[in-house]
Specification:
This protein is α/β, with parallel strands linked by helices and 179 residues long. 46% of the residues lie in helices and 15% in strands. The chain has helices at 10-19, 30-46, 69-87, 112-117, 126-140, 156-170; strands at 4-6, 22-26, 57-66, 122-125, 145-148. Strands 1, 2, 3, 4 and 5 form a five-stranded parallel sheet that branches. Helix 2 (30-46) runs parallel beside helix 5 (126-140).
Length: 179
């Protein structure tokens, strides 16, 4: 049985690699996700398990797409901010960076603009989401992804719209076909 384990800290990365689990790695921006991605592959290899290009790892990333950047930001702002308010007290956004590149404090509350600028979430126009998903694929090696659409406050109709736009407008442009 394949075990997919959330890898959100160095100890869970070490454990999952040594135990032979697959890693579900949250988005940390392109460069930091690549470091975690490669580190997991190296530690899995040290434990006797050579992983192929995108093998044994999965990217987990929040997504909100719109026909334009403005529409996406307008639709994502309140759900994003509610998500941040809910999880910031638990230190969930420590992968973000200050403008000077330094670490953020434990309870950091990123803005929607921070999440977009640092490529932590797929928020934007169809073109931007296609581009960013392609960059995660090409620069990091992502072949498996969990797209998290369900931020707080979205209605069922808005969720359905997100799923439909992603399936019909975004995924085909990066070569994904749904069967």
């Amino acid at each position: 049985i394949d075990i997919w384990q959330a890898v959100t800290s160095p100890p869970t990365l070490d454990y999952a690699a040594a135990a032979g689990h697959h890693a579900v790695i949250p988005a940390r921006g392109i460069a930091d996700t690549k470091r975690w991605w490669d580190d997991f592959g190296d530690k899995a290899a040290a434990a006797g398990r050579e992983l192929g290009h995108g093998e044994g790892r999965c990217l987990a990333i929040n997504m909100h797409v719109g026909p334009t950047m403005e529409a996406a930001m307008q639709g994502a702002r309140n759900p994003h901010d509610e998500w941040i308010r809910f999880l910031a007290p638990y230190g969930r956004f420590r992968a973000y960076r200050q403008p000077d590149g330094s670490p953020v404090p434990f309870g950091f509350m990123p803005t929607l603009e921070d999440s977009i600028e640092q490529d932590m979430m797929l928020i934007g126009s169809i073109d931007r989401c296609v581009d960013l998903m392609g960059r995660y694929r090409d620069e990091v090696g992502v072949e498996h992804v969990v797209l998290f659409f369900d931020m707080p406050g979205l209605t069922q109709e808005q969720m359905d719209e997100q799923l439909q736009m992603t399936a019909e407008e975004v995924l085909p442009r990066i070569g994904v076909t749904l069967g």
